[in-house]
Amino acid sequence: MSLGPIELVVIGFPDTPTGGRIASEIQRLIDSEVITLVDGLFVSKEEDGTTNFVEIQQMDVDDSINRLSQFIDDSEGLLADEDVEQIAEELSPGASALMLVFENTWVKGVRDAVADAGGVLMAQIRVPGPIVDEVMAAVAAE
Q: What are phi and psi of 91, to 5 degrees?
C-alpha cells in the first residue's frame, strides 16, 4: 500500500501549549479521510536555550494535545533529525512547537484515477496562508 503525498505542519506556541480544539480538528479530518496522521513530535526550548524533543506518544503537556497519539498511524520515523533541529533553532527560549507529519489521504483516489488514465501526479504545491494573504493584498492594492 503506497502513501499519498506527505506533509509536515509545524504549530508554534510562544509558551506552554493549550491544545484547545487542535486534537478535535485533527480527529475530524482523520474521520473524514482527508488526512492520516503518520508521525508527530513535540519540540521545546528552555530559557537557557536547551532543546527537548518528545514523540507525541510520550508527551505530557495538555490533555487535548496528548490525545493526538491515538491517531498516529503505523508509519513512524518520517521526521528527519535535520528538520527537528531546524525547527528547534527557530524557537525562542520558553517556546515550543508541535510537528505533525500527515498523509494527504484525499489525494490517493485522484492519484489512482490519474494513473488509470495513463497520467502521473507531477506535483502538489502548498502555498502557506500568510503568502496567500500577501498576494491577495497586493492584488487588491493594484
A: -75, 140
Encode pLDDT of 83-99 as tens digits: 889 999 999 999 999 89
> What is the DSSP annotation of the chain?
-----EEEEEEEESSS---TTHHHHHHHHHHTTS-EEEEEEEEEE-TTS-EEEEEGGG--S-HHHHGGGGG--S----S-HHHHHHHHHHSPTT-EEEEEEEE-THHHHHHHHHHHTT----------HHHHHHHHHHHHH-
Domain annotation covers residue 79: yes
In a domain, 33, yes or no: yes
> What is the number of domains present in the chain?
1
Q: Is residue 102 part of a domain?
A: yes
pTM, entire model? 0.77
